[in-house]
Task: structure prediction
Amino acid sequence: MSASESTDPTVAAAEAELARLRAEAEAAEAQLKAAQARAALAAAEAAAAQAKLGAPHPVAESEPVAEPVEASSGAADPSTSSGTAASSGTAASSGTAASSGTAASSATTAAAPPQAPTAPGEDGPLTADQVAAVVKGYTFESTTLDLGALVNGDPVAEAQIRIPLAMMNRHGLVAGATGTGKTRTLQGLAEQLAAKGVPVFAADIKGDLSGVATPGESSEKLLARTQAIGQGWQPAASVTEYFALGGIGKGIPVRATVSGFGPLLLSKVLGLNETQESSLGLVFHYADANGLALVDLSDLRAVLSWLTGDEGKAELKNLGGLSAATAGVILRELITFADQGADVFFGEPEFDVRDFLRTAADGRGVISLLEVPGVVDKPALFSTFLMYLLAELFEILPEVGDLDQPKLVFFFDEAHLLFRDASKDFLAAITQTVRLIRSKGVGVFFVTQTPKDVPSDVLAQLGSRVQHALRAFTPDDAKALRATVGTYPKSGYDLERVLQELGTGEAIVTVMSEKGAPTPVAWTRLRAPQGLMSPTPDPKIEAAIKASLLLAKYGTAIDRESAREILTAKMNAADEAEAAEQAALAKAKADAEFAKQQAAIDKAQAAADKKAQQEYDRLLKKTSGTSRTTRTTRSTQKSGIEQVLGSRTTQTILNGVIRGIFGTGRR
Result:
């Protein structure tokens, strides 16, 4: 090469570009060989462990057989880069690299057992570059939770799938068909969160989450699986508190007052339409304005009975917009609701949701499990009660912004029950709560069967997704599957096929990175929980409940004076006043009748007296033969005739005459 060529800028630029391409090719080839070696090492370790246990190398029955997929546009193929470098004058380097690659491949083949996994890109859906991109996408500087290992035909132990702990308050979704491992995913996340000092709340629908309180049991199958994904599994138990809605079950009772529950959530539970929902809101307003505490359902029924009764008709009219017919409908729904046993969920002492934010003495977060097997026939109440707890957290917690770790992670199991037949106002309230509670340091994970169970406005707030297998047995299922696939970022997977091929304990994962961007889509074999993957025995649960400090606080129900007692007293007072009024009316009527009868008696007496007087006067007139006189007309001055008649002689004569007439004289 001449001096002029060596100083030519064009030549210098070409040489620099050639050097850059050579370095990239060597780096890609080294990365490929390293990935191959690590995969082979993991498989060899698993095989060695199985050999020690005297068992054959495990092959999961549900493990999908992935076919090679062409690399996405723009992805670099290491072999192509090497070929380009060789054609650009680097034959010696390429030859050396090729020899090294061949030797490495031979060594790998010799060291690996017969069932060793193939290299990434050879029998898996992802190329080596795509695997490298996944590894880079899930490498974080901050504290993380480990979800599992990448699956590319076989697990790639060095490709660990993680989620930053700080992103757990950006919410998430765990979805999948029944039996695909959602509960175990929830358990694994809860255990890791608690171990890092984050309190956890979860509803235990089937009762098998209680196993977090008991160390897990080892088995050959479990160890083979965990070793294959690079998990150093050890049995461990988490600090656990058990709760039960209204005391139905073994846990510490969790109750709410009707006032605290509110008209919006109660309308959802009762299945009221929008008109009835607004009317119920007026009833709550009336109770609040008149100092009527709504503690349990009997209080609300008492208010409605008062407003629809004679005593409250005027007050019902003043409310405006509340008809007696609508109030009657609400009252009937409440009676039916209470007859189903739902009244036990409402009362005092009302649960303070801050008791979910506790940590143990050793710094671990407490896992609060809400036992709900006893209310499985009341799904609407169960799901709405969970929403009430979440709304209470939003109400009482201060704004904290973005934290290094959340204050609480709330797992909302069977989330589809919450959104079924929900009104627009209710959905708006849920969306607002989910959107804003992040700044309170609370993360919410919805657990359900398909993403379509969660409204799109709520899904839009979720940062992390763990999607287990979906089934497509009907046209509606197939449509839902395609809709789910359409919500994922572009990846090297045929997701419509992969989502149906996922084995139990496998999922398609994408989370929110530390920068707030979604990570690459990763087919993941999830880690096994360290706690028992079956329910904790009842005696241990009962012992834990008796030892809880919260039992003294919430164990005994309280019945204080509330709307029912106040309105009953009012109605009793009204009844007493009415009784007194009726008694007064009866007395007045009796007095009037007595006066009437007395007047009649007096009149009859006067008539009798008059008649007797007349008879006396007649006799007197007849015997005297004189003109008629009466006592009332006699003068105080006696006349001559009176003097004669009154004389003793005249009296003697008259007596003789009378005795002669009546025969009383002596013969």
